[in-house]
């Protein structure tokens, strides 16, 4: 391991995560060097459907970056998967920045920025083996092998040595295309020049051996096509799992099977792949408008994101998607791992498929994800020989397993840091000087539009509706005299069974009448204020009677009576 001599100048390095530690997704790492902030990745996390209350996904608390946006010198997006890139538009809307990413992800980011009308940022395409000057410092982008073409790792040069993020990688020594081929020589060169801190992902840190060749889909999908040359095959892949999609396509080409790309997003993705040099024989592609259910040798490739993918398949199986009629001799191949948040949707889909009599092959049960296993992680450590090691990305048990394998290789436990989100590791003169929690981070739920519920009010309302129900109280009063001329009418949903508790609705109606009359008599009547008084009194009454706090919606309609 090389020694790192302290520099005479006191350079301060701060490393912290705004997401990704002890969780699946929402990845964001920050390297701050003498005040300049380098952001690595900006991903989302899919919530647990039982707790999501309609939320689509969750992003990081970026308040620190917003507060110091003038110091953000660059954002590095290593590839185009949801857990790495999909929070980027929300970051750029608040912190316009220079973004550095691979060619295919650049197209994806530019499209999303246009859709969300995000302006003011600059998207730079990074080629493999590129070296750039960013924020006045040398940044090296080195090629690695992952499930997305052009994926890279990042090395930022400081006076104390390189700070390296490994990227999501595997070691695969087969003859891969340039879009997927890693470089051991680039890693070895960084190790020779001196690595100060290595941040390395942990998702496979408890998996023995190397990931390759157990990540490959081709052997299993080939067997299905060989044995079922006159049956229709439906294949599920995640839209952003380009390596997996290309495996399916190449296998279809090998067996001369016709293909149909199910969604417009897939068709657009194929155009983007064509732009970076990947083409599919036109004669093997069936356009959706030319599809008929009589075709028997066709492979329908269904690619979407997250839990939506399994909902779509469920609808196809239930014959709810035109033009498909799902037959009992059809085969469904699951080539997409079941991501956190999709378990219940997958279970429902599987149940409905067996009702229809179809056959399902879960190919992912034979494969492992394209993340480094123990020997891959050890190889990176061996080549880079960092002074400090920080496991990132994954649940705590995986972060711990990653730290343990470094200790097994002889690394000093004092130089291995497991950080929580918001915890800052500070380095000066070649050594760690502090490691304290500095930020109290709050997740930001996204429900279609981030600005709809920044304070969580909508989520709280959904929680109340799901547990304690709702009660609506409506009354009509004379706009001039404020006398009740219509109602009150009381409606409840999810609170009580009215036949057994009619007295409650009568009491609630009486509370409404009395409150309006009292406010009018005391000359304190105001439509909004009086509704708040009604809500407070009804809340106390219902809590005493039912032990519940339903959502209470008083409505006072002021009617202009005719003379």
Account of the protein in words:
Residues 25-199 form the Metallo-beta-lactamase domain. InterPro entries: Metallo-B-lactamas (IPR001279), RibonucZ/Hydroxyglut_hydro (IPR036866), RNase_J_2 (IPR042173), RNase_J_b_CASP (IPR055132), RNase_J_C (IPR041636). Keywords: Exonuclease, Hydrolase, Nuclease, RNA-binding. This is Ribonuclease J. Pfam families: Lactamase_B, RNase_J_b_CASP, RNase_J_C. The chain has 563 residues and is α/β, with parallel strands linked by helices. 32% of the residues lie in helices and 25% in strands. An eight-stranded mixed beta sheet has the order 7-6-5-3-2-1-19-20. The chain has a six-stranded mixed beta sheet with strand order 8-9-10-11-12-18. Strands 14-15-13-16-17 form a five-stranded parallel beta sheet, sandwiched between helices. A hairpin with a 2-residue loop joins β19 (423-428) and β20. α10 runs parallel beside α11 and α15 runs antiparallel to α16 (527-546). The longest helix has 20 residues, at 502-521. The protein is globular, with a radius of gyration of 29 Å. The model is unreliable at 1-8 and 450-456 (pLDDT under 50).
């Amino acid at each position: 391991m090389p020694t790192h001599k302290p520099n005479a100048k006191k350079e301060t390095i701060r490393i912290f995560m705004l997401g990704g530690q002890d969780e699946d997704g929402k990845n964001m790492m920050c390297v701050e060097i003498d005040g300049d902030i380098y952001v690595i990745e900006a991903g989302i996390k899919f919530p647990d459907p039982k707790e999501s209350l309609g939320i689509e996904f969750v992003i990081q608390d970026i308040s620190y970056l917003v507060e110091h946006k003038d110091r953000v010198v660059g954002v590095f997006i290593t590839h185009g998967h949801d857990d790495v890139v999909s929070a980027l538009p929300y970051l750029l809307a608040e912190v316009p920045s220079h973004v550095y990413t691979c060619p295919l992800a650049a197209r994806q980011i530019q499209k999303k920025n246009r859709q969300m009308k995000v302006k003011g940022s600059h998207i730079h395409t990074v080629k493999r083996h590129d070296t750039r000057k960013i924020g006045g410092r040398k940044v090296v982008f080195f090629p690695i092998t992952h499930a997305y073409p052009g994926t890279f790792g990042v090395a930022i040069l400081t006076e104390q040595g390189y700070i390296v993020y490994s990227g999501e990688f595997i070691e695969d020594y087969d003859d891969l295309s340039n879009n997927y081929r890693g470089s051991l020589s680039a890693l070895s060169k960084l190790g020779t020049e001196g690595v100060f801190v290595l941040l390395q992902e942990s998702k496979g840190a408890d998996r023995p051996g190397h990931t390759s060749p157990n990540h490959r889909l081709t052997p299993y999908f080939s067997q299905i096509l060989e044995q079922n040359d006159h049956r229709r095959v439906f294949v599920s892949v995640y839209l952003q799992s380009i390596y997996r999609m290309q495996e399916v396509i190449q296998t279809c080409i090998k067996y001369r099977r016709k293909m149909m790309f199910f969604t417009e997003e897939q068709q657009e993705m194929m155009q983007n792949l064509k732009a970076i040099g990947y083409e599919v024989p036109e004669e093997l592609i069936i356009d959706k408008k030319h599809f008929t259910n009589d075709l028997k040798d066709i492979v329908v490739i269904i690619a979407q994101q997250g839990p939506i993918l399994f909902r779509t398949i469920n609808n196809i199986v239930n014959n709810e998607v035109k033009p498909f009629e799902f037959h009992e001799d059809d085969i469904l191949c699951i080539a997409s791992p079941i991501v956190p948040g999709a378990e219940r949707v997958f279970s429902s889909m599987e149940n409905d498929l067996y009702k229809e009599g179809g056959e399902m092959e879960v190919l992912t049960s034979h494969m492992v994800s394209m993340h480094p296993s123990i020997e891959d992680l050890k190889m990176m450590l061996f080549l880079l020989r960092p002074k400090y090691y920080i496991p990132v990305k994954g649940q705590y048990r995986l972060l711990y397993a990653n730290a343990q394998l470094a200790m097994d290789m002889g690394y000093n436990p004092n130089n291995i840091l497991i950080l929580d989100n918001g915890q800052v590791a500070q380095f000066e003169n070649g050594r760690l000087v502090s490691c304290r929690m500095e930020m109290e981070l709050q997740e930001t739920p996204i429900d279609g539009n981030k600005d709809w519920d920044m304070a969580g009010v909508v989520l709280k309302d959904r929680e109340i509706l799901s547990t304690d129900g709702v009660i609506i109280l409506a009354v009509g009063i004379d706009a001039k005299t404020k006398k009740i001329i219509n109602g009150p009418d009381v409606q409840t949903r999810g609170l009580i069974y009215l036949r057994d508790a009619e007295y409650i609705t009568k009491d609630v109606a009486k509370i409404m009448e009395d409150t309006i009359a009292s406010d009018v008599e005391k000359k304190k009547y105001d439509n909004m204020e009086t509704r708040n008084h009604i809500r407070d009194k009804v809340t106390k009454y219902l809590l005493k009677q039912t032990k519940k706090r339903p959502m209470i919606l008083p409505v006072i309609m002021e009617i202009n009576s005719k003379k």
